[in-house]
Design a protein that fits this description.
The protein is α+β, with helices and mostly antiparallel strands. It is 52% helix and 11% strand. The protein is built from 22 helices and 13 strands. It has helices at residues 5-16, 26-32, 48-54, 105-110, 133-139, 148-154, 157-169, 175-183, 193-205, 209-219, 221-227, 248-263, 269-278, 283-286, 300-314, 319-330, 340-367, 371-374, 377-390, 405-408, 416-430, 438-451, and strands at residues 21-24, 41-44, 60-64, 69-74, 77-83, 85-87, 99-101, 120-122, 126-128, 141-142, 172-173, 287-289, 295-297. The structure holds adenosine-5'-triphosphate and magnesium ion. Magnesium ion binds at residues 25-26, 39.
Length: 455
């Protein structure tokens, strides 16, 4: 296993001072899977003040002294060093009432959540794997360390962490662990919205989530309904639609999975997967059937966007992300066509980034429908191409028009009419009816005013 030199140096220094020191947790798990770890956590038998003494002369930050964590800046990078510890009693399914330091590595790894996260490694001492984590990683299995029910009662966030790892790594959940996750799901109500939202975000955007979300959302839908009770109404909701072969929840799950695939590793991954999670959540309230028995959901996009707004506020999502997600939801079924006029209007209304988000949502949505709908996808890609082609060369805001209020003053007296003239000119330019050139815009303004008989 490769350990970066700044981490190896930290381990060395602690060992030379007479303490044990290991890397542990996510970094060991990822290394064993051939994934480059994004950070390295160090665990040691040294007490926090002993660690501070060992690193005297280096930049040391007392991150969480009470929980035994000291951060040392090494090679320009902050590295967390945590003293072996045992968690005290958990009374709120959230965090231990107290922690006790220990000199036993076994006790430290026993407090960790899953076997794959309970492996320690040291270049000097080799691998410490008391709970069979390496075997479980090899077999792609998520298994609690110890009794799953007890572990979920201690900290219910572990339920969601398990789902997140299952989606992000493509692992299956061992059956006793899975059963306990479902059985203990109500305990998630004790967990703060911030912690829930952070894990949910990782679940939606993990490296292999695009292959696994459908399975996770299907097997564990009751857990999703604890976090987002509004989902319950779309469970098994039949659509009676010629476009659909799935109920609203299953369609949603497949659309989320499609969005995760389409956006893997990209900036738009979280906004789009969240948008797909909510895009049809308002459907039950809008359901009608016509005389032929065909189902309709008029205005469901606007209603879903309102619900998404409420849910994301409750989950303490940032304002910028919430607004972006809600806009995608609101316009996810807007009429699209691969022609200049439609795309220019889309750009004028939404700007380039949101316009692309909306088209991507169409693709993810159609991927989760019947063949007839999937046939439209090549056209949606063509729309994306056209967006990128037209965005740099077109004018979409009044500020970008080749005339302003001053230039128009001769033709239009300062009055509320001025705003209407500007709006009219912008519409003409956006629609491609006239070019954005001063003389032509002035002529068009005069025509507009004359036609209305104002001057
Ligand atoms: P990643 O950093 O890739 O998201 P991770 O497993 O490293 O995954 P962290 O939150 O960084 O997750 O936690 C580091 C380690 O701490 C875990 O590998 C696990 O051993 C332990 N751990 C984290 N959260 C919990 C928890 N809620 N209950 C028990 N152990 C935990
Ligand atoms: Mg980590």
């Amino acid at each position: 296993m490769e350990v970066p030199s700044n981490i190896a140096e930290i381990l060395d220094r602690l060992e030379s001072a007479g303490y044990e020191a290991w890397i542990v947790g996510g970094c060991v798990r990822d290394s064993l899977m051939g994934i480059a770890p994004h950070d390295f956590d160090v665990t040691t038998s040294a007490l926090p003040e002993e660690t501070e003494r060992v690193f005297a002369g280096m930049r040391v930050i007392e991150t969480g002294i009470k929980h035994g964590t000291v951060t040392v800046v090494s090679g320009g990078e902050p590295v967390e060093i945590t003293t072996y510890r045992v968690d005290g009693e958990y009374r709120d399914s959230r965090r231990p009432d107290s922690v006790t330091f220990t000199r036993s590595l076994r006790e430290d790894v026993a407090r960790r959540d899953f076997t794959m996260n309970g492996i320690a490694y040291s270049p000097k001492r080799g691998m410490f794997d008391e709970f069979g984590g390496a075997g479980d990683i090899h077999n792609g299995i998520i298994r609690c360390i110890g009794d799953p029910e007890k572990r979920f009662h201690e900290d219910a966030l572990r339920i969601l962490r398990g789902l997140r790892f299952s989606a992000a790594l493509g692992f299956w959940i061992e059956d006793k662990t899975a059963a306990a996750m479902l059985g203990c799901r109500e305990l998630l109500n004790n967990i703060s919205a911030e912690r829930i939202f952070a894990e949910l975000s990782k679940l939606l955007t993990g490296r292999r989530s695009g292959e696994n979300i459908l399975r996770v959302m299907s097997c564990f839908r009751e857990i999703f309904a604890v976090m987002i009770p509004e989902l319950r109404r779309i469970f098994d909701f039949r659509q009676y639609s010629k476009w659909h072969y799935l109920d609203v929840y299953q369609h949603t799950a497949l659309a989320v999975q499609s969005a995760a695939q389409l956006t893997a590793g990209k900036e738009n991954a979280l906004p789009l997967t969240l948008a797909m999670l909510f895009h049809d959540i308002g459907k039950p309230r809008c359901f009608t059937r016509d005389e032929n028995g065909e189902g309709h959901f008029y205005c469901h996009a606007a209603y879903s966007a309102e619900m998404a707004d409420r849910i994301l506020r409750r989950l303490k999502c940032s304002n910028a992300l919430r607004e972006r997600v809600c806009s995608i939801v609101k316009y996810h079924d807007t009429q699209l066509k691969d022609d200049d006029r439609t795309v220019r209007r889309l750009l004028a209304k939404h700007g380039e980034r949101l316009a692309c988000d909306i088209v991507m949502a169409h693709i993810a949505d159609d991927l989760a429908k019947k063949e007839e709908a999937r046939r439209r996808i090549p056209e949606w890609y063509a729309v994306i191409g056209r967006i990128h082609r037209l965005a740099p060369e077109c004018c979409f805001t009044m500020k970008e028009l080749a005339v302003d209020g001053n230039a128009l003053r001769e033709i239009v007296p300062p009055s509320p009419l001025m705003g209407r003239v500007m709006k009219h000119l912008l519409k003409k330019v956006v629609d491609g009816d006239i070019p954005n050139e001063r003389e032509i815009l002035l002529q068009e303004a005069a025509k507009y005013v004359a036609k209305r008989g104002i001057i």
